[in-house]
Amino acid sequence: MRKIILLAFLLPLAARAQIALYTVNNGVETPIGAVLDLGKVAAGDTVSVRIRVRNVGAKTANITYFFADGVGFSVDRPSLPFPVAPGSVQDALLSFSQSTVAPLYPGTLSIKSDINNISVTVIAAVVVGPVLTVFPVCTGSNGSPPSIDFGLVQAGHLRLCNFSLQNPGAQDMTISTFQITGAAFQISPGLSAPFTIPAGGAVTFVINFTPSAAASYTGSLAIATRTYALTGTAFNAPLPTPLLEFDSGPIQSAQQRRLTMRLPSAASSSASGLVNLAFVPDTTLVTDDPAVVFLATGTRSLPFTVTQGSALISIGGQTSAMFQTGTTSGQIRFTLWGVQTAGDATTVLTIPATAISIDSAIATRRTGDLDIQVTGFDNTYSAGAMTFTFFDTSGHALPPGAIHADFTQDFRTFFTKAQAGSAFQVRVSFPVTGDTSGIGSVDVQLTNAAGVETQHLNFQ
Amino acid sequence: MRRFLLILCWVCASAVYARAQSGIQVPTAGAIVDSSGALRPVQGVAGSFWLGPANVSGILSAACSEQLCLAKTDSKVLSPTGSVDAPPGPAIFGLDGDRAILFFPEPRMFARWHDDSLDPLDWTVDGEVLSVRFSAGEAEIAVRRDGQVWIVRADGSLVDSIPDASGPVLLLPKAVVFATKDEIVLRQDDGDVRFELAGAQSITVMGPGYAAVSTGGAIYALRTEPGRESLFLLPGNAP
């Protein structure tokens, strides 16, 4: 009867309680009972448990006290006071660490709010932990936090690291947990839990780190009460220096040429990057030639890819890439970006200076004028000197013979202003009087720094 | 000699010099409709082209000659001097100096264009009209009938056939450009010039001496000038 009365008295209190405590492990909440056991902790190590404060009531709870009393215990939580709204949670971290071996470390985790209070007994044991020695080339630490780094490894290659696990105590040590996680990490067969390390003795083992692709890798190695964070980074091996090749024939201005790229040997890993081209003109009159581009995109950069095991390089998804050489003498420089290569793949094409190239020309008559229109390019940017010799319909030169004119400044002004390469269309008009029907043709001679180009035109 | 002679002298050369100052410009090879439907001038010289800025958008088809450039939107025919209402859909252009014959495939209607006006023509041509040209002042039309391409006049009389053509066809004043499965063929009086190119979807007049060949993924400039026949890829027009 007395028990029933007591329960009846307690039930309303429980119903009114708003704050509840849980542990959280991998996202799973577990209610905390009267005692929370943190288990065995290696001397000098820290064990931490995530504590969740949940407001299960319908009213905001103001937390005014939240501490862990007892040697070695501490709580990492927000500054007091803090509210927890109905249905909301607040996480904190309960930690324990001691360097002195003892079978029981007791403490109290207490939380107080304006609604209800909770007090939980927390306990932990400190034991002699095994000491892990990490041999080069790996590096590691037994504490704060325990970690092992496998360093930089070429993707697809194996790195073996040797370890020695020692028992520094005076009693045999049973290791009941010996487990590794992480896709790239693997313990070599031969040692599995549980196993015993004699007092003062040691066991050795090997961990393989085999990254399949360039990336940062993580994992964990749990030994007894201690968990080591495993890290390693894999990089792609430098590509064999790519060979940049062009379709046959001398490189000149106003060409559309084909670039292919290949490796001298198969790639050990897949890779991708950009192939870029840049142009440096010989002349100082312009700074660039905008017609020097990859034709697929009209740009100066294309993506390329190479597949592991292949020597073929795909440029923009194709086996080759077309580009224009423009109308300016100078150098087209191809470079690769975004990949490591064994050597410098930079390739330079030299566009030689040439005499003026005439793309088309026409001579026409108008009343009072003879018009000569020439379309072409001058990749030296030195055009201007012209000579015109008119002929009658019988092919005899008309007086006064060769007529010289110098349009150098006009061309310089045009080139500088247009900044569009050296392509030009020039119309030269000769005012005439009299009957022009007897004028049959004209020799047009265009001179630049690289030579002389002559075109014979019949009047239409 | 002096009778028709001219004054070609140093003084004249000075005059020439003065005129030539404004006589230099960036060469233009024609115009194309790019993948976004914008009319773009093709500038530069053979082998070194670039596309100029888009001035007009919503273009379905276009053709340019030395004297005239016409473009078709969904409802109008545009020229450098103005526009005129037109039937919906694209158009096929047959340019002749400053005039043109247009064919509108959707209503299957021919019309004569001049001075920004359209005069409907009562021509009836059976088959799929592929191209129109003027030859000796008379219109000639390329049509596909039962898989065979014929060149006919407006009155239906037969001029020629193009047995190899399996794709688009363009009639030029003195040549024919057509596509086979794997090639572009430039047929002239003195023979064929063939270029390896698969998947041609359209061939139009790009400008004097050039035809534009579209494969859907790229546009090519075909130089049709006798003796200088070449096929160039135009930059930056991939979709």
What can you tell me about this protein's structure?
The complex is a heterodimer of chains A (460) and B (239). Chain A has helices at residues 2-16, 408-418; strands spanning 19-25, 28-31, 35-42, 46-55, 61-69, 73-76, 82-84, 89-97, 102-113, 117-127, 131-134, 139-141, 147-154, 159-166, 173-175, 178-181, 185-187, 195-197, 202-209, 215-223, 226-235, 243-246, 256-262, 271-281, 301-306, 313-315, 321-324, 330-337, 347-351, 357-366, 369-377, 385-392, 403-406, 423-431, 439-448, 451-458. Chain A is mainly β. Chain A has four domains: 2-127, Immunoglobulins (Immunoglobulin-like, Sandwich), CATH 2.60.40.10; 131-235, Sandwich (Immunoglobulin-like), CATH 2.60.40; 243-351, Immunoglobulin-like, CATH 2.60.40; 357-458, Immunoglobulin-like (Sandwich). Chain A is elongated and about 125 Å long. Chain B is mostly beta strands and 239 residues long. Chain B has one domain (27-233): Neuraminidase (6 Propeller), CATH 2.120.10.30. Chain B has one helix at 10-20, and strands at 24-25, 28-33, 39-45, 48-51, 61-64, 69-72, 76-79, 82-85, 92-96, 99-104, 109-114, 117-121, 128-135, 138-145, 148-153, 158-162, 169-172, 175-179, 183-188, 191-196, 202-207, 210-214, 219-223, 230-233. Chain B starts with 9 loop residues before the first helix and ends in a 6-residue tail after the last strand. Chains A and B meet through strand 30, strand 31, strand 33, helix 2 and strand 34 of A and helix 1, strand 1, strand 3 and strand 4 of B. Strand 34 (423-431) of chain A pairs antiparallel with strand 1 (24-25) of chain B, so a sheet runs across the interface.
